Amino acid sequence: MSKKLRSLIILLIGAGLAYWFVSQLEWQIVGTHLRQMRIWPLVVAAVLINLTMVARSLRWQTLLAPITPVGFHNTFAATSIGFGSIFVFGRAGEVVRPVVLSLRERVQPSATIATILIERLFDTMTVAAMFAFNLLFFTMPASRAGDLKMLGTIRTFGALMSVGVLVGIVMLVLIRLKAEALIRLLENFSRRFPEKLTRPLLNLVRHLADGLSVLVNFQELLKVVFYSAVVWVLVMSATWLVATAFDVDFSLSQAIFVMGFGLVGSVVPTPGGSAGAFHKAAQQGLIFLGLDQNLAAAIAIVYHLIAFGTPFIIGMVYLVRDGISLGRLREMITQESAPA
């Protein structure tokens, strides 16, 4: 599939989801909810979201340690610009981080790409673990209190997710312990294909194995797990604060529930920080908890701006300081996405 066709499909998906989100709303009511929201919880939520950038930078610094020592200021700058790129270009903007870091440190982007994948693994597992554990003890909202069948389904799903997380952890450890054998197997298999096609894959697997070394280093593993937990506790707290801004009385359990829905939406690689997909997914989670669709939409809109828009501001500051234009970012994404 050509890049242009893939980009067109992603744009069409984003446009379709955005239309699905906006077409069912009464915008006058949504506007009323937006005008009545309180500002101070949103300010605190924005601060917490930006603090996740600090935790992410420290975690990335830990993952990069087996490859090369890097300074915190440089990882923070690259992380800020990278997440700002996600807001503009979608998930494809994640490859910007290694490139920006290479401009500040003597490290090749190809050597650090795998650490981004490892971060995504830890993020996915952390949220999945929080979401799964939460579902095991989830209580239905008052509007659905009598739906015992749905409650049973939710808790069964939570149990299955918990098992899935444990299996995933075991598989990652096995991949790290058997990395050399896996690489030899891939090398033998890749001889049947042109080198220009197989070399990037082999390099990626090697770097991935190096990055997964944290799984067999107890001290480093604790650091990565701790920073991952900090990131998502901060996100959960910000989610709760956004609901509070609209005078919605949510528990932390319900905040985790909505956060999980939002994460599913954020996986869709549409521009604008998964615009459309994130909004619709978060809205559906809120509606399930008993909120009116217009109030749910208002919260989803603000939640998206807090989660993706506020890191974009810090990223823009570093872009201006480093003299990097959005056009240059687009070039970085194009250049690095091809070999990746």
Characterise this structure:
With 340 residues, this protein is mainly alpha-helical. The chain is 80% helix and 0% strand. The protein has one domain. It has 15 helices and no strands. Helix 3 crosses helix 6 and helix 8 packs antiparallel against helix 9. It is globular and about 60 Å long. The mean pLDDT is 81.
Summarize the model shown.
80% of the residues lie in helices and 0% in strands. By secondary structure, it is mainly α.
**Proportion of residues in β-strands:** under 5%
Q: Counting H and I runs of at least 4 residues, what is the number of helices?
A: 15
Measured on Cα atoms, how large is the radius of gyration? 21 Å
Helix fraction by DSSP (H/I, runs of at least 4): over 70%
Nearest-integer average pLDDT: 81
* Main sheet makeup: none
Overall structural class, as computed from helix and strand content, comes to mainly alpha
Uncertain segments are: none
End-to-end Cα distance, whole Å, is 15 Å
* Element pattern in H and E: HHHHHHHHHHHHHHH
Number of domains: 1
Quick one: overall form? globular
What is the count of β-strands?
Answer: 0
Key traits:
340 residues; 15 helices; mainly alpha
Write the layout of secondary structure elements.
Blueprint lengths: L2 H21 L3 H10 L3 H25 L7 H18 L6 H9 L4 H28 L11 H30 L1 H12 L4 H17 L6 H28 L6 H15 L4 H4 L2 H12 L4 H30 L3 H12 L3
